[in-house]
Amino acid sequence: MKAADLFQQIQKKQSYLCLGLDPEKSKLPVHLLSTEDPIFEFNKAIIDATADSVVALKPNLAFYEAEGLAGWQSLDRTVVYCRENYPDLFLIADAKRGDIGNTARKYADAFFTAFPFDAITLSPYMGRDSIQPFLDYPDKWAIVLGLTSNSGSADFQLQELANGDLLFEKVMSEVGGYGSTDSLMFVVGATRADYIRRVRELVPEHFLLVPGVGAQGGSLDEVSALGLNKQGGLLVNSSRGIIYASQGADFAEAAQREALNLQRQMKALLERYC
Amino acid sequence: MKAADLFQQIQKKQSYLCLGLDPEKSKLPVHLLSTEDPIFEFNKAIIDATADSVVALKPNLAFYEAEGLAGWQSLDRTVVYCRENYPDLFLIADAKRGDIGNTARKYADAFFTAFPFDAITLSPYMGRDSIQPFLDYPDKWAIVLGLTSNSGSADFQLQELANGDLLFEKVMSEVGGYGSTDSLMFVVGATRADYIRRVRELVPEHFLLVPGVGAQGGSLDEVSALGLNKQGGLLVNSSRGIIYASQGADFAEAAQREALNLQRQMKALLERYC
Asked: Residue A93 in 3-state DSSP?
């Protein structure tokens, strides 16, 4: 999928919503726990209920890895189910991998071939050869951490360099040169909307993946005003606010309602800014 | 396992060798390819042949993830086999994970509970809350990337901060305060022995995990002279130089020979510096 294809989906669905599929067994509706694969059954119901309102799905792999082999089985079933039933959904492995060149190629094989994702999130700490192998796959994406939404982001990402830049600014301007706007996005946390303006100066054309709206406190209006561009340029993630809108038997309907609510807000924001 | 237990193993085996178990199907001896789980059979033979000479095993997860579900099955069998047959081996998941606090807790569950590793490698880019959850597990370890051995390490890790420190120096002195010498190690690449002296100023007591000796060109003598301390303080990793010493039917014997050769060098270095 290229940037233009992703923008086409955004226009078609009038949405730039990315759904974070981060299931925890302890939070699943009880009636699913007796099924053979509760996490897959949960994901399947959530995806069916929200697919009209979302353009991207982002399983965070920690939630699957925590279940051991069974978790990887649930992830595999989820990805295959999406590919077969919703081929236009943009599938992001939120894996935050990052390793030396020959090992990075193995991670690219893992998430672009063994598991057919469209994109993977990456940590930039190890530099260019930890990112480049992912950019060499046609129509696949590397989504590199720029400025994250957690409290620890201040520890290193906001450190000032000798030339006056903050570390995340150096990362984004440097990594921005590794790939094109058809292969590279950045993660920018919504809880720091004041920085999104600066990010748009550094990478005006690249898509941004923005977590932190909703449970983490970011403002959709503010992020959209600063982040949207003429090619869309924005995916806003929501996870807990949608998938746990209800933990009862009506969890899928509640998730649908929440996703639709966000999609309607996004429709208005697209008309205004895009 | 605490630092003193690890040092006891180092003294017992007269070795601080960490074996990188990074199997690639295309490089396995052909006679293994017809077995049900070639990667596990390869690992098992390598482990049996080298267990007397090594104190730690470090599977890099990329090589397993690249094989999809089957790879995770191979990893699971390998870890269970080690736990049952070599309970004193220190097992490191070379995963380089790093995510926000509640997600980091899931990764800790994954690698300390679902898969019973002793330690996991972590990327520091997201700061304290991405590391702390791993330090809260008793007798488990976080091994945080300081200065890595790849070409891209210069891109960000060697950036100079406004206060004159290099980024990796800031990372190591900051993260060094998060945990004790019983819960926290650092990755320091052997290809930059000139920096190991500086690292020992920053974290004189912590264990260092040093990749890059052998295939990547680092010198064992130099690293040991600078890195060993009175509590051992050093794990030196070798992967390809041991596991692919031969790709024929004698691969396990060849691996044993290489591991033993390194162990003998380490014995002499321990007598000299420790």
From this structure: strand
